[in-house]
Amino acid sequence: MNVFVAGASGAIGRPLVAELVRRGHAVTGMTRSDAGATALAELGAAVARVSAFDAEGLERALRASGAEVVIDELTALPRSPADMAAAAEGDRRLRLEGGGNLLAAARRCGARRYIQQASGFFLRPGTGLGDESESLAVDASPRIAASARTYAELEARLLSAGDIEGVALRYGFYYGPGTWYHHDGASAGLARRGAIPVIGDGEGVWSWVHIDDAAAATADALTAPTGVYHVVDDDPSPVSSWLPAFARAVMAPEPPRVTVEQALAAGGEDAVYYGTRLRGASNARAKRVFGFRPRRLEWLTA
């Protein structure tokens, strides 16, 4: 197929382009940077140098690519999760406004399918693992609620479009090369400085996915039935389990432990929500429908 990937030089973009090329698809990768353009060309992709905020330029690039499928991996995430508060508004604008331009261009250019990056870790709190019928935590702590509303808007916008096939992939937290959660990633550095504590009982459950497994699932989504899928691994883990294991894996000291009250004073409501209230996601639908087979969370086997 002819596949257009927006956000092609990001954390998932590069392994995704490599996987699509490996499977024989003709890929056009969208980027604004010289380094991104060079990397994409080396992977065997055509390069579209255009901004998501340039609606006319986007349409020209999509028409030139002959895209049958458009994959939206647009993000404006910082190099470290410690900087998320400052980056959040720019990231939200890119996803909503830039992604809106991309979806509109895809529809005008006659693309058959649009695959949307979504979130598998902002599910509404509840018992057990949540499936795709679960709504997102739009009434959570302030920044998490804002992110959940963004993802809910992205999903609703795509799935209500009647003239293009919509697939929303709710990824877990990325780990692996090029991500925050890797031995040379930003979170490893924070862990080595003792800057990521276990809050309270550490009962917040995080769903993960290796970046290469996320790329493979996205390539599978080119032909999967439309709808929403949780692209997460088999090991949703409470912070009390995954964080000490991650620390050991990246040669960091045992994480400090703080009370909820201490965390509220130091990091605010969002830090407490991440540490104590996140809900894990079930990957049963992706496994059943298109054979998703994620690897085990590597820290649990270290």
Automatic annotation (TrEMBL):
Residues 3-226 form the NAD-dependent epimerase/dehydratase domain. GO terms for cellular component: cytoplasm. InterPro entries: Epimerase_deHydtase, NAD(P)-bd_dom_sf, NAD(P)-dependent_oxidoreduct. Gene3D superfamilies: NAD(P)-binding Rossmann-like Domain. It holds the Pfam family Epimerase. Transmembrane segments: none annotated. One of its GO terms (molecular function) is aldehyde dehydrogenase (NAD+) activity. This is NAD-dependent epimerase/dehydratase domain-containing protein.
